[in-house]
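Hi support team,

I'm opening this ticket because the web form for multi-chain structure prediction keeps timing out on my end. I have pasted the exact lines I submitted so you can reproduce it. The total is 1677 residues across three entries, so I didn't expect it to be a heavy job. Is there a limit I'm missing, or should I split the entries? Thanks in advance, R.K.
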Amino acid sequence: MGKEIPAEKSLNLIRERLCDPTFVFRPLSASSDSNYSKLKFIVSTSITEGCNNSILLLGPRGSGKAAVLDLVVGDLLEEYPDSVSLIRLNGLLHSDDNCAFKEIARQLCMEHHLLFSKMASFDENSQFIIAMLRECGLAHKTIIFLLDEFDMFAQGKQRLLYSLLDAMQSVTSQAVVVGISSRLDADQLLEKRVRSRFSHRKFLFLPPSREEIDSLLEHLLFLPADSSFPNGYVSQFNEKIKNLTSDARFKDILRTFFNANSTVNSLLKFIFRAVSLMNLESGLLSLENFKAALSSIQRQPKLEAIKDCSILELYLLVCMRRLEVKEQSSYNFISVMKEYKTIHDSFQTSDYYAQNVCLRAFEHLREREVICYAENRGQSQTGEYRLMTLMISASELHQGMRSHACCPAILLKLLDH
Amino acid sequence: MAPSGTVTDHPPSSTTDSFNSDVTAENDIRPFFVLHKASSGSSLHGKSIGTLKSKRRIESPTPKIAKKSEVESVEEEDGHFFSTLRLKVFETVWSKIEKAIEDVLRDSNSKIFSGIHDWIRESFESIISSGALKLSEAVRSYPVLTQASSKQLFTALVLTRNLEMVDDLLTFEELDLYLKSQGCHVAKLSSMDFSAKSGVGGCLRGLLRQFVMPTVDVADVTILASWYRENKNHENPVVVIVDDTERCCGPVLSDLILILSEWAVKVPIFFIMGVSTAHDAPRKILSVNALQRLCASKFTLSSPAERMDAVLKAVFLKPCSGFTVSYKVALFMKSYFLCQDGTLTSFVRTLKIACLQHFSLEPLSIMLEHFCQDHVNQLSGEDTGLLTEATMKHSFDLPSVTRNKITRSTFEMLPQFLSDLQRMPNPWSIVVLCIYEVGKFDKLRLLDIFCEILDPEAHYLKYFSPSEIVNCQSHNSGRNNVIRRVLRKLRDLSPSQLSSMLKSWENLTAEFSEINDKVMELHPFMRSVEAAGQRQGLPNSPKKHTSRSHSKLEKEVKAMTDKVAAVIEFMLREYMKPVETIPFHEILCFKNVDKLQSALLGDPRGKIQSDLLESHNILHCMCCSQRGTTLLPSMHDTSILYTLAQEHADVINLHDWYQSFKTILISRNSKAKQKSKSSSKSKKRKDICEEPEVPAEALIQARFCRAVMELQIAGLIRMPSKRRPDFVQRVTFGS
Amino acid sequence: MAREESSKVTRRSTRSSSSASVTVENPEPNESHSPTIDDLTFGEESITLDALLSNFPGRRSQILDFIRLIGPLDCPILPIMVYGSASTGKSSVVLQTLRHLNRPFVYSSSRTCYNPRILFESILNQLLLHRKCSSNGYSSAKRCDKPSDFVNLLREALSNVIGTLDSASGKGKMVYLVIDNVDLIKYWDKGSMILQFLFSLYTVLKMPQLGIMLISGLPPDVYYSNMGYTDPLLLYFPEYSEDDLRLIFLRNQANKKLYSAFLDVVLRPFCRVTRRVEELSTTFSSLFRKYCEPLDDLGVSPNEEMKRRLYSHLKPLIAPCLNEIFRVSSHPHDGDTRGERRQKVNYSSETREELEVLDFHMSSSAKYLLIAAFLASRNPATLDASMFDSTGGMDNRKRKRKVSEKSMEKKEIAEQEAVMKGPGSFPLERLLAIFQCIASVGDSSFGEEGEEEEEDPTGYDRESNNLMSDILLQVSSLCDANFLVKSGSCPLEGSIRYRSMVSEDLALKVARSLSFPLAKYLYRR
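Hello R.K., no limit was hit. The queue was backed up. Here is the completed structure from your submission:
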């Protein structure tokens, strides 16, 4: 692969950076009052002093909670290689207590090179875990439980949380439970017996500030001078980036982007898109790339759905809309058909099709979820008689039909009456 | 014992299995048999009672009754010998009939089957020709991207033009076997596999079970694909038969179709859907996307009426077994076929019951054995030797015999009578077939012709009076009358049709000279007609008044048709002796309609109720057999309760009911006489206050509860609802 | 145990990857050909970019965008979601692009894999180069139905595959996981859970070597409802425009000129109804056959007047086709004589569809029952008393007039709610009551035209009480034929209710076959 051109190489490099959260969040965690340093302090103290602890990391999705935690844990593993052992659980996978315990047991076995039996029962697993906790406590080895999607553990009987925290009450054990959740009220979900055992130490993750973003940008986009690039290219590339970031239009793009979504991950996605659009001949990022990326990020699925509709489907939508305007609260296919017929009778439109064709169009609209059944019960009725509702607002319908490729004028007229 | 015994177990078994076959899930509603009208219509009420009696003798399963029937059957025949013999004869006769029917049905289907197979082959070739797949791409998980229309499933809609499925279950079995014999891989799914509960997994599992192996861990289509690629499987098409599409759960079937269509190229699957209603039934069931994937073509089975005609022809008109039925029986069977479930199965069942009863009731029916055998005049000494005095006497008491003034003196001519009984059907059936030939032009059903022709008083002959001939052309009154329709149709046959008809007549009458001559006489007229036709270029309808030559042609045709009509009349007059006018016809003709009907139409609901009302007829206890309207405590609790329930309205107050029940039970002394079943509330109070039988109370309550439960299980009352906890509701008014 | 398991896998795959080239060349179906690492890519040679672009008219921008997102060899990639409505070429574009780039990938469609277990196992089977066959009893490599197990197994499998990929040349270190028809997962039980899992699989797995691509028929906003939803990169496939469709249909045609002439005629009207390729293609294929009928050789390039002639030949067929969604072609082998007539009827719109004749057999009691059910679910129950009486319907003409004017006043309200409610439901008793009334009417009429007047009564009053018996059998068979649906429960407390699903014209058809005056009894709206 020696023949690969520097442009591809740089693209590759940047994309790897973007896909590697630890790399991304390293600079953000530099400052002393960052979540990173606080968290690290707490965990390391609880390791050194051999006490138990429990922490919650809260913040919107993609604000880098897990990444920061990983950084911390990684560093700790380097510092205290033999007195830390790690258990990772994810609420998506292990919200069911039984398989959570199984998973913990499995990881413990992996950690300590024991043979793990899939057949082990729930009780066996829990006893095994308690025993291991005690053992590790005696060996002054801290077990760090990382519970991602913490709130999902809080649903159900919360046996996992209870037994973990309860085991931590005993002096012998030595463990840290770190919960990660995007629900700010995650600790309110806990039962009383669990909450009483939980030390309410919370870290809030806020969206990055302007300068953080700027530093992040150059951290991500600047090519390292030392690497095997032809250095003319590197300087050129970095130069381009520099006056790109200083460009006002670029700032506008960023602002408009951050109006919609403010987390770091979304920013990463945005940059990823822009970078993937990079022109490989010149090998440089341009403003157009970011423009295109922005447009491709900002999507309006409903409008697209309407643009996809055929004329007949548009007719049906308009009929429903008209029924709604007529304060006909609920309607089904049959009444829509009647409206369709009245329209046809009054305006002699060219598109008047048989009922079964309309039914097919109706089904198409349903599977695009432009419309849907009003209530789920009433399965006994056939589809024609079940009540329907529009899933799109009137304004969306207007806008979509205006931008539709070949929407007949009569329809727009019918829509406005 | 034997005959009645056999009768007892035959009809119920046949009926039940027919039920199971087509109403598995629905049996639960049987207890709901409500006949409001049946009670009101008085005439029909009397009849139903009559049928009930006879039915009890024939098909009540308790051995006691059977013995009784034997007791009365003993004096009309002697001993087991004849009954067993008759049974034997029945077996032979029925097997003959059954075989005939099976043959008819089979070759009615064979054409369609071969058609379906050809269709499968062609489509399979077309798929193969589009390019063979490598193993690696045939089993890989993503679709083949080369073909454009790679997602179409070839589908055959087999229209069984009958609402009921019973007849066609067998048909699809045979189709299954046929296609297997042709080398296809066939799996047969029924609506049971398409349940919403088990979802698409259920039917896939069913497929894999039949194709691959009995037990699969997870029902996955890839298994099918890789199976299809193993040891030469892929040289033959895969066929999936769904015999009752209407009953399948639509979404599941749609899912199956969508999944299989994803794999359509890798595993060329052919759907065969049995559609019992209209050909657009799939559109009603399937989702539009699934519908999109079907590339459907249609095959139509012969309609039940057509099959029926074929069966009639084979059983009664072709020489099969001498057994035949009387006019009324035929009418009944026809109406049963048209009004009840129009299935051939039930028709055959009827026929079987009729045949069986004939043998069980008619001692002389043994002689039918000789009709089964082909050698004709083999009826001599040792056969008549079979006839004991009793049977001989019986044979000469036969109404037909007495009607024709045949005395014992003419005993030795019995064989001769029998032999011409035996040869009698031939010209008769020929005539019927000839008329059928004409009727075909008017889409007449052989069934109708058959029924009318059997009419003993031969009403049809009067249509040959000239007046009739006139007015039957003029106005179309009584269009249901077959012969009249035939005659009228004859009038507007085109020459070509006439000639074709003549040909078919020739073939039919070939081995029967008398009629054949008559038919031959028609030929010159035919020729002249054709000549006239030649003269002005073959118009196919004689109804145009254009040219003179034309009118000439008309005259010819007119003359021709008159001749034909004359021939028909001749045939009818000479050879159309209805069976029932012939002496000794009872030997081979079954006449007893009521028995047949009662055996066939079990009216379980009505029977339960009537039996509850007069339980003593069944229990045969001395005590309450001669009771009048009074209810005796010795009667069965359930029947007491039900009788009491009669006087209540639609809902019954449990308390009142219980009280009246109690009064009947505990007052076995002085005023048993004036305790009528109309016991008013006041009297009840009195009873309670003056004779409190405390110890019996619990027992009475227990009996009451049990009786109520039984009534509920019999489906006669409905348990109290939440709103009115102390009222039970009567499901029906008495029948 | 897992460890030695994995080692076995590596051994097998390395061994076969050494012999990869031969095994793919000669696929002898009988010898169990063990899949190789090459089976993760397309076996055959990859296609050029131009071929790819020309294969998919109107998809140029999407393809280029997709290629850019995938990026050059072993670039890591964030999850991608390709969405767009049905038959817009999502799956084929994705697959063909991967073929063009010749990247190893794993494809599972949640259409074929209709529950989580099958989905997971099919993914693992492909990664572990395992193939179900008779020798292994058609079992999959690993039994896995929980997401948690899946993640662990997936990690192992991936690490192995990537290890072997390094040895294999020129395929990079990336493996792509394509999951098709993601929208169907919504309808599984606990489907939203599985969806969350798939959407956040990338972050859970923490393996940048796995590029995840989800193909969905539904726009992303449908999934917002699931919490735990992290937005993947979006790639949108719009419906084809009319010109795109023209190019698509012209793509592999023998005689392009002729076909484009054909398209000039049909494409525009049909596009107004639907723009789905698969729907159009089925219609066009049959129509084009009709179009070519007058021609003797199909190689001809049509001039103007020939086009005109062909058009005039085709014109009458277009409107029926527009109004037909399901075509049943009757087969030459069909025993039915009326086949070709029916064929024409199929082209005609269903409203005029053989009103004259009921083309399947029903016993007359079943017919009466059907009509009774139809009436029971169309008429309000309160009107039964005035409609029917025990003396039968002969003298209810004046009654009917009363009914009709009653109906006149509250016409539109009834209509409104009837349209809303659809056919009403009714208990069995009501059905039977109505049935007996109309059956008695029908009988008397049937009788007087049926039998001769001096005919002995055995003829029809037996029929009339025949009609009464075995009714429940008929009810059940009507249920089977979907003419009745029943909201079933235990019949003993009899809360079971029925509803008639019969379309009005079918009911009229049946009534006509009985010569029964249905309209007289129908509570008209």
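A quick check on our side: Chain C touches chain B through 113 residues (CB under 8 Å). Let us know if the file doesn't open in your viewer.
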